[in-house]
Amino acid sequence: MKQIILAIGAHPDDIDIGCSGTVAKFVKEGADAFYLVLTDGSKGSEDAKIPNRELIKIRQAEQQEAADLMGVKQVFFLDFVDGELENTPALRKQIVKIIRQIKPTTVICWDPTLFYDADRMFINHPDHRKSGEATMDCVYPFARNARTFPELLDEGLEPHVVEELLIMSFGKANYFVDISETIDKKLKALACHKSQFNDIKKFTEMIRGMNKMAGQKAKPKLKFAEGFIRITLRKPN
Ligand SMILES: [Zn+2]
Predict the structure, then answer these.
(1) How far, in Å, is the centroid of ligand 1 from the Cα of 14?
(2) What start-end ranges are recorded for coiled-coil regions in this protein (predicted)?
(3) What pLDDT, in 10s, does the model give residues 62-93?
(4) Could you tell me the sign of the dihedral formed by the alpha carbons of 82, 83, 87, 89, in that order?
C-alpha cells in the first residue's frame, strides 16, 4: 500500500525543523507527502512594524518554497492565530477534515507532553504542545469515528484510520529515521525560512548537530537521523 504522509506543525518552519529529512526520505521511496500548518505564523518576527498580513504572506511563501524542495504534494494553511492555538473542537474539525480528505497512513506531529528540556535549556512553544495534542486527538479517536463531526459525512469525508503516528522527539525518541542522504536537502529547506533566522548558517549548523546527535542514539548508529516516538494503530475489529 502506498505510504501517504501528513506532517502537522503549528508554524511555518516547524515541519522543516522537526521532520523534513524524514519526509524527503519517504518521498524518495515513493510516498506522497502533505504538510498542514495550523497557525498563520503572525507572531514570527521581532519587528513589530511589519503588518500581520504581510508577515503571514511571507511565511507561507517560505513554507511553500521549502515544501516544493522536498517534493511535497500540497501544503494546507489554516488561519488560527499564532500564539493563541488551543485544542478546541473548531481546530480538531479542521484537522479531521484534512485527515479524511487525504487519508494518510502516517501522521507526524509535535510532542504534546514536552513543556521544557532542562538539559538543552529549552522551553517549548505552547502552540507546539497544543498542535501535538489536537493532532493526537484527531488521529485517535476523532478522524476514525463516524459519529464525530457527522456533518463531514455529508461532504463525503468518511472516517479514516491512520496506521502510524510519529511524534517528533529529541529526548524520548524510540524510532530513528536515517536522514543521512536527505540532510542537505533538509538544511536547504530550512534556509527558505529567511524571515525567521538572523544567522541561517548558525541555525542550520545547530540543526545538523542535533540530527547528528540523534543518529548517535539510533541502534545501529546513523550518520544523521530524526528521532520520533512511534505509535502504530490497529484497525477497528
Ligand atoms: Zn514553531
Answers:
(1) 5
(2) none
(3) 999 999 999 999 999 999 999 999 999 999 99
(4) negative
